[in-house]
Write a structure and sequence with these properties.
Length: 634
């Protein structure tokens, strides 16, 4: 009885944080019937007094008694060894216990933490999928951090679904969950989350978007005034007017040839950006322009290159350099105009542009809109994508090319023969709509519009790049699931061959097809779009003007439905549109890379002329060359 009383008294003293008093009460009992509870209390007292290694050893002893709490005490011992920096001891205990309990999430978390401290990244990543099955928010956050390097791993979505339930007020988790739901084609969750965020925007004017990433916002936020409110830009330190002034006033030795630097992480020829830009790089007038590519492309993607890198010009890797070292490299090359091809997309180098890298800095092609907090003098667009009324929503000055902001590769861009519907497992007879835009762009607005198109064209079918869940989404909108044909992403050659089985492509909203729209037109498939509210939703309009098909640009949603259904009512209308594309492909500006290059060079010269003269950037509208009278290719 006295022992039990002494233990109770010691436990109360220990819980109050009086560790020395607790040890005094416990010390006389250690020699008597030692049990795991007594040892655990001694261990906690020692830990409270800062004797971490001694406490760890006591807990190890408690675990060896193999009592009901042995697993708990072994874990405590390992954690204490970890805190003391005794990594080998902690690892030995944790691995031994993991053999007994391979799905013990607390042990897995401890080992992940340990391997992170010791730099054993391979071992750390080997445990991430097992840790992702936990329900503990702390474990899930660790799993999410490990999975971040593999954004297409399905485990990401499962982790964030659980985190969304566990931490409903965390804004970062909220928006990451929404992004992953889009990728997973979980259309029900996307609709629910978007509706809730819309309600918050109504209440706070869009401040809720501060936790959203700019690159994710373009997929679903239509309103141009709201897009700059997506301010989750990581560790980028925003430029200031003073830092901008110092950059522009920094002494610079201009040369006779303009030195252009392009910064990108996409320098391999199967990337969408290079299917657009590759030919322009080879066409730059080397007598007037000295071109350098600053390459942030990861090694694993360079391996996919099949020859493009050898054609594009001088390539200097910066993927192993920090921003300061990359800035020095840019300055060593004497770059006059530094052009970013990424914006806030994967593997960007926006931080480089907030230093003093070049006297003129330009955003182009990679990001459809203002790149908040990054010191760009100009953004390159055209009259469609950058109308005058958009200027208040940009800190960059507009430089508008005369026909289209988007270049297009033709020489090395495959255009294989069409695959038959039979080869693709598609029905032969019905009129076939198609969309190969990223599933991220399949917003509730897009699905609603497409469903209304299919209602208005009751015999038509739809081929769409999405998961099977797309059938359920259309069934919920009253469309027979048998009319919907989900397809997977495939190699580019197969993609262009498959696309030609379609009669008409339907665009997505509020973010259009960008490279995908030009791919469709390259394949000879007409695309129906409608006028958008911001750069992401105006790209297809620009491309259709440039190929000579402005009649496929609807004024609004009702017009989009009417136009699509009218074309579907008679296949000969779609055939006539395909014939126009074939006739225009090598006559109109969209695929005229040489003409585009000359317009782009004129833009660079205009930018440089102002900077050389000490003038601040000003809006530039580049004049078009005279129209071609003969095809530029046959």
């Amino acid at each position: 009885m006295k022992v039990n009383h002494r233990l109770s008294e010691a436990r109360a003293v220990l819980n109050s944080g009086r560790y020395e008093d607790a040890l005094s009460l416990l010390q006389p009992l250690i020699a008597s019937d030692v049990d795991e509870e007594l040892l655990a209390m001694v261990g906690e007292a020692l830990a409270g007094l800062g004797h971490i290694t001694g406490a760890a050893e006591i807990f190890e002893n408690a675990a060896r008694l193999a009592g009901p709490r042995a697993a708990e005490f072994a874990l405590r011992a390992a954690r204490l060894h970890l805190d003391a920096g005794a990594h080998d001891a902690a690892q030995l205990i944790a691995l031994r216990e993991l053999q007994k309990r391979p799905e013990d999430h607390a042990l897995l978390y401890l080992l992940v933490t340990l391997f992170q401290k010791t730099g054993e990244t391979q071992l750390m990543h080997a445990l991430k999928h097992r840790l992702a099955t936990s329900s503990d928010p702390e474990h899930l956050l660790a799993a999410a951090a490990l999975l971040a390097s593999e954004p297409h791993d399905p485990a990401n979505y499962e982790v964030y679904r659980k985190l969304r339930r566990a931490l409903p007020d965390d804004p970062h988790i909220r928006f990451t969950h929404l992004a992953l739901a889009r990728d997973a084609c979980d259309f029900e969750t996307v609709a629910r989350e978007e509706a809730a965020i819309r309600a918050d925007i109504e209440r706070d004017g869009g401040e809720v978007l501060a936790a959203e990433q700019p690159h994710q916002a373009v997929f679903w936020v239509a309103e141009e005034a709201l897009l700059p409110k997506a301010r989750n830009i990581g560790a980028i330190e925003p430029f200031t007017e003073e830092s901008r002034r110092l950059r522009r006033q920094r002494p610079h030795a201009w040369s006779k040839r303009l030195r252009i630097g392009y910064v990108s992480a996409d320098l391999w020829d199967d990337h969408a950006t290079m299917r657009l830009l590759g030919e322009v790089l080879t066409l730059h007038d080397r007598d007037r322009f000295d071109v350098t590519l600053f390459c942030n492309t990861p090694d694993r993607f360079r391996g996919f290159d099949t020859g493009g890198r050898s054609r594009w010009g001088k390539i200097l890797p910066i993927d192993q350099l920090d921003d300061a070292a990359a800035e020095r490299l840019v300055q060593e090359r004497g770059i006059d105009i530094l052009v970013d091809l990424k914006g806030y997309t994967v593997n960007h180098r926006c931080g480089l542009f907030n230093r003093q890298a070049a006297p003129v800095q330009v955003s182009w092609l990679g990001f459809p809109g203002t790149v908040i907090a990054v010191d760009f003098d100009y953004i390159i667009g055209d009259a469609c994508t950058l109308p005058e009324e958009s200027a208040p929503h940009y800190h960059e000055v507009f430089c508008r090319l005369p026909e289209c902001y988007q270049p297009n590769e033709t020489i090395h861009r495959p255009r294989p023969a069409a695959k038959s519907r039979q080869e693709l497992g598609l029905p032969e007879e019905p009129f076939l709509f198609a969309s190969f835009n990223s599933p991220r762009k399949l917003t509730p607005l897009t699905l609603d519009l497409w469903a209304r198109v299919l209602e208005a064209a009751p015999d038509a079918h739809l081929m769409v790049m999405a998961e099977e869940t797309i059938r359920t989404a259309f069934a919920a909108r009253g469309i027979d699931a048998s009319r919907i044909h989900p397809v997977k992403k495939c190699a580019y050659v197969d993609h262009v061959a498959r696309a030609q089985a379609a009669d008409l492509a339907l665009d997505t909203f509020p973010c259009n097809g960008h490279t995908t729209t030009s791919d469709m037109l390259w394949a000879g498939v007409p695309v129906v779009t409608m006028k958008g509210q911001g750069f992401p939703g105006r790209v297809s309009e620009s491309l259709l003007h440039a190929i000579g098909l402005p009649d496929l640009i609807a004024e609004d949603a009702e017009d989009f439905i009417r136009l699509s259904a009218t074309i579907a009512s008679e296949r000969r209308k779609a055939d006539a549109l395909k014939a126009r594309i074939a006739d225009n492909r090598f006559r109109r500006p969209l695929f005229d890379a040489e003409r585009f290059c000359r317009h782009l060079e004129a833009a660079y010269e205009a930018m440089a002329e102002r900077a050389r003269s000490g003038l601040a950037p000003a809006p530039l509208d580049i004049a078009a060359l005279p129209p071609r009278e003969t095809p530029f290719r046959r």
